[in-house]
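Entry:
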Amino acid sequence: MARWLAYEWNDRELRVAVATPRSDRLVLEHLFDVNLRDALGGAAAGGEEPFRPSPEDIGRCLAAALAARNIRRPTTFVTISRSFVELRQLSVPPVSDDDLPEVVKLQALREFTHVTEDWTIDYLSLDGDPTQPRNVLVAALSPQLLAQIEETCRVAQLRPERLLLRPCASASLARRCLPLSEGEIRLIIDLVGDEVDLSVIVEGRLVFMRTARLVGDPLREQSSAETLVGEIRRTMMAAQNQLGGGRANHLVLCGNTPAHEHLVGLLRERLDLSVSCFNPFQPFTLSPQLAESLPDHPGQYTALLGLLADEKEKITPSLDFLHPHRRPEPPSKKRQLLLAGIGAAILAALGIGYGWWQLAQLDQEIVQLRQRQSELDRELKAGAQVAQLAQAVRGWIGTQVDWLEELRRLNEKIPPAKEVMLTKVSLAAGSKAGEISLEGFAASSESVQKMEQSLEDETHRVVSKGKAEDDSQKPYTLRFGTSVVIRSAPSAPARSIRPPSGRAPGLTPTAAPRSVAPRQAVR
């Protein structure tokens, strides 16, 4: 069964999730990460140049990790960090959903400093009323980064189907595992490596996202946890401006290990807010192998699991750099033309219906006549075989060569079986003489010479067809061929007979040779 693979692309560490979709569930088979510095032997920090693996190196590391787990040509989805894209909230004039993609692109080219026509632009719509100014969260991906991701996939022999922002996928899984309550403004906290994704959801819509770099692990270090508290406060203040004074009232931490539970208590104490955490594996079935060896930081796979869960439920992501929002294609006239063509075809069918019925009757009669013709052909073929046999019998009766007498003479004159063994005797009658062809094995050359001399007389001429050493029929060591020409024989067709079981020594029966008129084999 085909597998789904979701991985997070970056130049430091790859995180990979592999699942198999079933009819009623999604089975997680693998969750693992690949440290690129360790895999490629990158130089350690400390005055040296920063570690920057090429897309080809990243692709080779990913291919090696997949090959080690026997994962071949899966359906592939990719996520990237929010830090890799240009992201900004924009306001555009009232416009319909169909026209919104073009308006957003034009506005983004004016508002973003470095974005040009060749960048991939997609957006999240923050409201849905086309009669009011539209607010959108616009993301722009550079063509250079898109080319690097595609090159990594090419080297790893993968073909990406989607390319999503990591916070969007994490927010989707959080909504699935912890349904939103009425009036809730949720801030999702996703700890991924040395980064934290902070995303704000209002009424089911992702309205704000921010990614910050952390020093240390907030799940293990108190100082890093305090840094996280500061980043959460800054995020809440930045989002408050876009929420018109609204403020997040529920924090959700991705993951449910004891370390997550401890961090939940710390955040609740420092921020005086409602704080929860959730199990990212909740919507999935774990394979036995994965259940026995879960990763140390399951929360880091939240985005990948959210992406896979959406695919299983066939939920189209609201932001996808491989399938960005586009203006719908203009209505096609193919449907109208198709309907007109169908109507014309129906009228034509009614006009020729009667003629078609007549043709069908004639076709049925043709089939019956062909069946009768086949029966007559079989009868003619059987009659031809009988006529051929009758002709052979007439030819046999008409010949004046006494073949039984010739066989008796051959039996009397041939040396005993310990000297000569015949494997084939062929009798043929021509227009001037008859001929007996002999093939077999002999104990020695003298035995063959003795046989040929005994068969030679005034009415029989012996012609040697050659001898060759052959020990495949021991104790015979020589293979020979001899022809006995009867000097005067009337024309007669060839015939094949088998000597009786009580033959004289020296005659050895073999498989009957193929009969070819006018020659027939006698053994």
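Confidence is low (pLDDT under 50) at residues 43-47, 489-523.
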